[in-house]
Amino acid sequence: MLKFVKNHMESIEGIATYPMISLLIFFVFFALLFWWVFTTSKEHIKEVSEIPLQDDQPKDMTL
User: Fold this and answer.
1) CA-derived radius of gyration, the chain
2) Whether 36 contacts 29, CB under 8 Å
């Protein structure tokens, strides 16, 4: 099965560009995420981290 897929993939012209595009998207995404994490203000992180602890739901939740 793998032999069939490998032979079929080798017959497609320009197939080598797809792994490079995937690597580029992966690298850009994580580089931007890394930059966002280190530039976000501490106040924003504190505010977002307290969201699960807020009790804004109504007490009576009948269906």
Assistant:
1) 24
2) no
CB–CB of 27/20 below 8 Å?
A: no
pLDDT tens, 37-56? 999 999 998 998 888 887 77
- What is the value of pTM for the model shown? 0.57
Cα(40)–Cα(20) distance, integer angstroms: 30
CB neighbour list of residue 11: distance below 8 Å, 6 or more residues apart: none
Q: How far apart are CA 40 and CA 48, in angstroms?
A: 11
Greatest distance between any 2 Cα atoms in the chain: 63
